[in-house]
Predict the structure.
Amino acid sequence: MGATEGHGKGYVPCMGHDRLLPLYDPLHKLLGMASVNRPLVDQAGIRPGHRVLEIGCGTGNLALLAKRLHPDAEVVGLDPDPKALARARRKAGRKALPVRLDRGFAEDLPYPDASFDRVLSAFMFHHLGPDEKGEALREARRVLKPGGSLHLLDYGEATATSGGVATHRSHRNWRPHGDSGDRVAALMREAGFADPAEVAHRVTRALGRVAYYRATAPRA
Ligand SMILES: C[S@@+](CC[C@H](N)C(=O)[O-])C[C@H]1O[C@@H](n2cnc3c(N)ncnc32)[C@H](O)[C@@H]1O
């Protein structure tokens, strides 16, 4: 387990350990994670003028993809790891993609109520403990505008053959069968979301089973 303390509250960084962070982007490429991120951005239905938040943006892959595909949306990425954020900032500069990158925790978002149209998250949820998952979902719900939506991608419940090479044990919340879709949807419902659902899944050799979830902030 590689929980990083020393920046205040602890968190599990990208590869489970700080010193493995330089390997994250090469591995991201090798495992074809960009191709599983793209459907999440498409699923979110981002429109010009939308304010979009990615929680757990790490080195910025999903946030930068969202900005590249939707240049007229305002994209904000948040992560507790200053080293990952520094990498994300360098990449944003190189690609000339203006994305705001903030340090913070999904369980305590530094944003006002009802300030985003979309909240995205990819491969972050399994980094959280059971209580943190509920808190993070409540925070996502709080910062979403009424009718706004949360789009989450993470390892899903593995079948006997679907555990990919990336489902490593370095995460403190690593579960041999991931979170089941029902469990994630139930947590979303408890957090006040209106219509939580696993909307799709993919099984890849490298990643195993990954699941896509959607939930909407109630309009009333
Ligand atoms: C596997 S990386 C995913 C990064 C990025 N979303 C991507 O798809 O490339 C998981 C990220 O979750 C972040 N994380 C861990 N605990 C967190 C928390 N409590 N709140 C927000 N992010 C967290 C880690 O620092 C790490 O950058």
